[in-house]
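Colleagues,

Please find the record for the four-part complex below.
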Amino acid sequence: METLDKNKESKGKKRASKRDPEGSRQALIDATLDTIAEIGITDTTVTSIIKRADLSRGMIHLHFGGKDKLLSSAAKYYSEVYYAELEKSLKHAGGDPEAIIMAVVRTDLGPNLLNERSAKVWHAFRGVAHSHPGISEYSSTQDERLKGILQKAFEHITREHSVGGQLSARQATFGTFALLEGMWVHFLSDMDGFSREEAVSLIQKFLSGMFPGHFAQD
Amino acid sequence: METLDKNKESKGKKRASKRDPEGSRQALIDATLDTIAEIGITDTTVTSIIKRADLSRGMIHLHFGGKDKLLSSAAKYYSEVYYAELEKSLKHAGGDPEAIIMAVVRTDLGPNLLNERSAKVWHAFRGVAHSHPGISEYSSTQDERLKGILQKAFEHITREHSVGGQLSARQATFGTFALLEGMWVHFLSDMDGFSREEAVSLIQKFLSGMFPGHFAQD
DNA sequence: GTATTTAATGGACAAGCGTCCATTAGCAAC
DNA sequence: GTTGCTAATGGACGCTTGTCCATTAAATAC
């Protein structure tokens, strides 16, 4: 019998075999996101990426056609992971609009989506988006999907209880979204002082102020 | 009599004479901010900056000691301009806490501070701050000063009317700040659709929801 | 086994980067 | 004028960047 470790995906991160195009592709994307989070997007070079992925120089050109396209693919992947997590959480939320909104808030501020690596990558991508169409595309898609979910839920609430002078669904979406983005920024500038519970509770207070009778605190 | 234009600071941007260290310094800072806003911080190189400032290669090293220090100086200058505008507006606001808070909100979202160039520069700086201590310093200083002003005003309000279950001054500051940051992000992603009035009004509604009896809408 | 296919390698390359400094030139003092 | 000071110039430098491709080697088909 032979040794059974070493060559069989033992660590979960290593590629399956020496020839594994799909694995190499993903390894490059992961290494890109790691590098951006660790040393910043300005210092993220082809060399720093392939060093971290433990692959050879030519792989980026081979699998993505260039550094720029790798960055776009990494942004796309990041956005997909974000949205997958959100949808997973929404499946357990049921159909109640309030529950949906609070599930979005809780998930967006939860440790799976809002953590050091993720927040740094998000921030870096947003910072360069304006001069990088490939990245811009995916981060604005992510925003629009999130806003879409919120707006649909808020529309239900405003329709049910048409409470005269209150906020429109559009404004409520706008405000909630801004608060969430602000929380991410805050998290980055003070990770130790940040409290997820407090952030969720604050948004909930904002919502219950805007929609009296709804979003009651525990 | 001689011609009186052409060589006497006529355009306000040109340097006063061919030898003007202070003017050159400022021209480099302005060119840096312009370049960042136009082509992004990633593509902002020594060459692109000196081309825009219409100065020679050596000037960056001469006046700032290197590109990195020029960037830090540009961040510092940006922050100073922001804060000067804010203080100017606060002088007219009087001593009333509500008026101070609303003046901060209106100024932060006004065209002098929130415009295309300014927002793009701000975004770019924040995106690289984590791997660039010189920039990080000034953008966090700016944040802290703004939060300080808000918190002091909110403390007055919470002290006067100690309305039991309401928001603490810290939370109100947190929420207002997050909303403002969110508005800037929103402005960047949809400049045409953005309405300053709506943004101000939304924050005011948030505040009047949190502090019933205060921040009454017009 | 051999042939075929293609993932992966890593060095060569030109272009571009930021830094530096010997030189030039503008202004003030005399 | 001449001198002294220093702002300003712009080319040379070494280094790093991203791209590309001839070569190697792993897996599959026969």
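Chain B touches chain A through 37 residues (CB under 8 Å).

Comments are welcome before we finalize the supplementary table.
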